[in-house]
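Exercise: predict the fold of this chain.
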Amino acid sequence: MMKSAHRLRYLTSLAMIFMPSLAMAGSATSAFRVTATLDPTCTVQTTPATFGHYNPLTTHAATPLDITSSVTITCSKGMATTIGLDRGLHADYAQGTTRAMKHVLRDEYLSYDLYQDAVHATLWGTSGVHLVVPPVAPDTKPRTYLIFGRVPAGQDVSIGHYHDTIVAIVNF
């Protein structure tokens, strides 16, 4: 066994004598920068604002029809944003409100509004105080903001289905 260990040392020494010396070859180095740019980005998702049944003769003769919907934004960490809701497709036909839903078969409209708060004091729009201004994104987790919808009481409209389309706009 001893001979085997001695033999291995001898062969290793012999190999080192005949190999060029790496220690004398020298070395060179070069440093390089590693970079990445995080693009500012946000995504937006909404839930439908479904008012359901409106009855201007009884239930909603003197009481408005209120609902809650939401908009959810997911943004890059550190993003400053604003969230706007446009006036919809039929805003020019609104009576006493800023928005209107159109009857699916007739040129008749049911007026409504969308608000930032549960007391229906601040309209949700696309500029100035009508924009929701969330805090700067603390992380990349989704953040949800409620939309408070209201159809005013006692509107004189025909039976049937009414609809509108609202676009949620996230500025960043």
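Check your answer against the key: The beta strands are 42-46, 65-75, 82-85, 99-103, 109-115, 143-151, 162-163, 168-171.
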